[in-house]
Amino acid sequence: MPGPAAELDYLFRHALLRDAAYQLQLPQDRARLHATAFAAMAATAQPQPGPHAQELADHARLGTPADFALAARELDWLDHAATWANQHFEHAREAELLQRACELAPPANCPALRVRLGLCLAMQSRYDAALAELSTAADAAQKMGDHEAHGQALAALGRVALVREDLAVARAHLQAALAVFAAMGNTPRQAALLNNLGLLAHAGDDLDGARALYDQALKLARQAKDDRCAAMVLGNLARLAHAARDYTSAEAEYHAALDAARACDHASSEAHAMGNLALLLTETDRASEAEAGFAHALSVHRKQGDRASEAAVLINLGLALEELGRNQQAVSVLRQAVQLALETATPSNQALARLNMVGNLKVLGRRQEALAELAAAEALVGPHSPVVVQTALGRMRQLMGQDRA
Predict the structure, then answer these.
(1) Among the listed residues 375, 348, 358, the one whose alpha carbon sits nearest the alpha carbon of residue 322
(2) How many CB atoms lie within 10 A of CB 247?
(3) CB 3.0–4.6 Å: which of 21, 87, 278, 328 could bond 290 by disulfide?
């Protein structure tokens, strides 16, 4: 009986023969074959996202010389294929498909497609390319009077600026988007934007302003029956109580956020709430209970390709490991966080990871490494850095004061 090696050899040779036979076909014959394959598949395929969508789009593209009507069908199936890739967090493939769609689409469809492409590029930390696509989309949508696409492009520009910690630019874009959707009476979009503006206020340590914005967002989300947005807002309200060191209220609110996220099957909100609850457990002398929460949050963020959130969880996991006396493991985890922060261009995450390394390295007797990490963090921290970062810097300066002297 042939073994696995023989089977692989057959498959390899078969693929070569198939490709050779394909190349021997005349171009017009190949186009007719693709058109025939498209017709056969499309006759039984549901016109919706699925694993078959990209294959149909490819057959439509290659069959267009034989049937020019297939060009429009290619665009439809590219849309479905990109949606399928997004649902499975395959962001690089999604970007390729959306780029193809943008090249084919009529002008009226381009702004909305470019918004999707810009958000996809941002998920890959390709921020300059994302900003270029989103700016183009915003300008085109405004000129065409496409208010929905214009508002979406402004909102996406604001979210990218928020991730990049450019708070003034983020505020301007988010407020402009809010005005667009308020004029349209689009309640769900308003709720999401108020939530993002709350994040912005929280980042600037304006806790009262953040609470007011979150309360408005929660009211509108519930009014619109947008359970996913409501779950996100509940998690952010819990973070406010956490920041105010009201640990009892924060813990109860994190559990409420988890229940809400699970009820609407919103994995991202659940992961954020779980990670933040694990941090609370760490800060209240229950670090041994926190590891499972951190592990769950990390698995979701990694699956979704959310590297900035992954870095934030690793930083907090480092705190738990330090609390448990596992300093070498903490240093390893925090080095991973630094690398992710570099890749995602998030200086606050990078500074926090380096600062949290300082204490661990000191305990391990690696004084020079600790001083080097402190110096690297100092270069990242400025007057507009989040309060949590500035506080951590002051604490590490004090810890290392004698060593620096």
Answers:
(1) 358
(2) 14
(3) 278
Handedness of CA 67, 72, 77, 82 (dihedral sign): positive
Mean pLDDT lowest for which of 10-24, 30-44, 244-258, 278-292?
A: 10-24
Segment (H or E) for 305: none
Q: pTM, whole model, 2 decimals?
A: 0.85
Residue 285 Rama label (left phi>0; alpha psi -120 to 50; beta): left
Query: How far apart, in whole angstroms, are the C-alpha atoms of residue 62 and residue 34?
Result: 6
Q: How far apart are CA 196 and CA 213, in angstroms?
A: 9
SS3 content of the chain, % helix, strand, coil (to 5): 85, 0, 15
Q: What is the pLDDT of residue 11?
A: 41
pLDDT at 68: 80
* C-alpha distances out from residue 396 to 80, 139, 369, 382, 401, Å: 51, 46, 13, 16, 8
CA-wise closest residue to 267 among 240, 306, 311: 306
